Amino acid sequence: MNFKFFALCAFACLSASLSATEKEFTSPDGKVKVVVSDESGKPSYKVDYENVQMLVASPLGLSTNIGDYTQNLKMTDCELSDVNDTYQLRNIKQSTVNYQARQAICHFEQDGKKAIDVIFRVSNRDVAFCYKIYEKRVRNNQTLVCVVNGEESGFQFPQNTTTFLCPQSRPMGGFARTSPSYETSYTVDDAIGKNGWGEGYSFPCLFKVADDRWVLISETGVDGNYCASRLLNVNGALYKIGFPQEGECNGFGTTNASVHLPCQTPWRTITVGPLANIVETTVPFDLVKPKYEASQEYIYGKGSWSWIIGMDSSCNFDEQKRYIDFSAAMGYQTVLIDALWDVQIGRDKIAELAAYGKTKGVGLFLWYNSNGSWNDAPQSPIGKMDNNLIRRQEMAWMKSIGIRGIKVDFFGGDKQNMMQLYENILADANDFGILVIFHGCTLPRGWERMFPNYAASEAVLASENLHFGQGACDNEAFNATLHPFIRNTVGSMDFGGSALNKFYNADNQHGTQRRTSDVYALATAVLFQSAVQHFALAPNNLTDAPAWAINFMKSVPTTWDETRFIDGYPGKYIIMARRHGSQWFIVGVNAEKQTLKKTISIPMIPAAAQLKIYADDEQLNGSVNNVKLNKKQQIEISIPNNGAVVILN
Ligand code: CA
Predict the structure, then answer these.
(1) 252 CA to middle of ligand 1, Å?
(2) Portion of the chain with pLDDT greater than 90, in percent
(3) Residue 326: which H helix or E strand, with range?
(4) Which of 33, 395, 500, 525 has its CA 20 to 30 A from that of 213?
(5) How far is the CA of 303 from the centre of ligand 1 (A)?
(6) How many angstroms is it from 346 CA to the middle of ligand 1?
(7) Å from CA of 487 to ligand 1 middle
(8) Does residue 526 surpass a pLDDT of 90?
(9) What is the mean pLDDT of the chain?
(10) What is the pLDDT of residues 247-297, one digit of tens each?
(11) Residue 282 alpha carbon to ligand 1 centre in Å
(12) What would be the CATH architecture of the domain defined by 301-556?
């Protein structure tokens, strides 16, 4: 090769790499901008919100056993279209959602042949993307299945971004080797570039990019057709999708995804903008569709459960009967009977309790161990949910005695085989008219819309920790100010809170001590969204708690028509509003040492309206007052540390 030809070739090659294809598209309101590129053969994307960088160039692509779709890719075209979908969902933060977005299907070729699509959706507050992998034909051989070994899908943050994250646990650790079960503590406003306890972070993951400019990363549409994933730090400000860990599920099952072609992978979601966008997003539900029809109109609502105060020994016939009476006195729809009922009450007596409950208008939820062979959790009933024959027999029995729902606990991680178990439990339960709550489990990923009988998941350090340790009680308000921005904004959260006992003990005099006020208990009944709630109230609260608190807990709804962020900062305080019918519930919680004093605007309530305000004094003594809303539709609030405010129109 002479020098001149070499130079020409080098120039041509350079030009080829310089001639990267870039496509740009925006949200309907133009505020969110996405740019996709195939520079150097490696697909990437970046995201701006109102011209501020939310994500800088971040990698795309996936590696499979039928091709490496992370490099040597050329973008040929992006097909743009508009998506306009109005849907009703009674069990999320908003009952009617009008989802409007720009869709871009970006086609990528490899060696001149169709390889993958990256499908983007850009709404006014969210970016989402997923991949479409095509079948392959080589001569007469068609490849119709493949294994996805990993995703390149990444999120590269600007400098000075800080993080609000909880670590993903190592597998087969914690109580009875049940981890990971999304029960770790958050670090807030932490530096970028860490990797949790070495295994990344549980979704959803919140990042602060600039002043009131935030990014929430999560995923949705995950079912038995794929594995669930986590967020791994690669280096510096680059994070990427991580598949499950080898040891999950007692080492059984693979860490990758086995798919039939053509296939569309789960959506990676990126909610951007001010905190209002983070709190109000509906992206987990916007991108999925129901997988089957509801076998009946499911009844959500409130209930009580003895276990949170009384623990295992309370799981006996007499105490459950007393809780049925208590639920009836509260006007609640259910009682949740927790672990060990099969041994300590027995199946015939459960049938008797179900019949008794029916006379009082109270249905039963029954606890089950999900095992199986994925961890050492010993609590029974066990071996009823992991096998489809036995599970369906069990559910037929439940239906015969009128059981309302189940709470299935102690799952084995995020591998595809475990996702199939979640899906199979839900689908079978629907056949028998049973609602499903998951505990010791993964994050729900769009399941409120995908599975009509799905009620809620734990996937949080829930109220049990308030019973187990004083530290959790001391940090209760701190955690409450995180959930509306992180865990609870992407899915129903079965927290089991709103205790009015002073102590987490049946005598209400011993054990861990509640630090939060009674008004706080009321506020979190609104703050923590789940269409099915089992509150940590106890029968003694009918006489030892303030009448105004009990009356509020009798009437508070569990389904919402609208949710609005008013003010707050993750880990410090939160003020938000939820509407049920024409009634607004404005609630605030303060975790900061000094009393929070604010003038808030509530333009959704007309001037001169009569407001009912539940508020705390500096000693956390609650009281109720009636106030007329002023002309400016503003109100002054004062919330002491560990206290709250609740305002009703
Ligand atoms: Ca738990």
Answers:
(1) 22
(2) 96
(3) helix 317-330
(4) 525
(5) 18
(6) 24
(7) 15
(8) yes
(9) 96
(10) 999 999 999 999 999 999 999 999 999 999 999 999 999 999 999 999 999
(11) 26
(12) Alpha-Beta Barrel (3.20)
Q: Domain extents for the chain?
A: 17-283, 301-556
Ligand 1 centroid from CA 633, angstroms: 42
Q: State the pLDDT at residue 138.
A: 78
Q: Is the peptide bond before 171 cis (omega within 30 degrees of 0)?
A: no
- pLDDT at residue 18, as a whole number: 54
Going from the Cα of 440 to the center of ligand 1, the distance in angstroms, rounded, reads 5
**How many Å lie between the centroid of ligand 1 and the Cα of residue 642?**
23
Matching fold, domains 17-283 and 301-556: no
Q: What angle do CA 479, 484, 487 make, to 5 degrees?
A: 75
Ligand 1 mean position, distance from CA 138 (Å): 49
In this prediction, residue 9 carries a pLDDT of: 45
Task: Count Cα neighbours of 97 within 13 Å in the Cβ-side half-sphere.
Answer: 26
Task: Please provide the DSSP assignment of 148-181 as one string.
Answer: EEEE--EEEPPTT-EEEE-BPPPTT-TGGG---S
Helices (H), 193-286: 275-280, 283-286
Q: Report the helix count and the strand count for the chain, using DSSP H and E.
A: 16, 38
444 CA to middle of ligand 1, Å?
15
Cα 254 to ligand 1 centroid, rounded to whole Å: 25
Are the C-beta atoms of residues 240 and 152 closer than 8 Å to each other?
yes
> How close is the Cα of 171 to the center of ligand 1, in Å?
15
In the reported structure, the alpha carbon of residue 571 is separated from the centroid of ligand 1 by a whole-number distance in angstroms of 22
C-alpha of residue 377 to centroid of ligand 1, in Å: 11
Least confident of 106-115, 131-140, 619-628: 131-140
Check: CATH 2.40.290.10 for 17-283? no
Residue type, 12: A
pTM, full prediction? 0.96
Label residue 534 left, alpha or beta by phi (over 0 means left) and psi (-120 to 50 means alpha): beta
| Beta bridge partner(s), residue 155 | 239
| C-beta separation of 522 from 644 below 8 A | yes
pLDDT tens sequence across 538-569 = 999 999 999 999 999 999 999 999 999 999 99
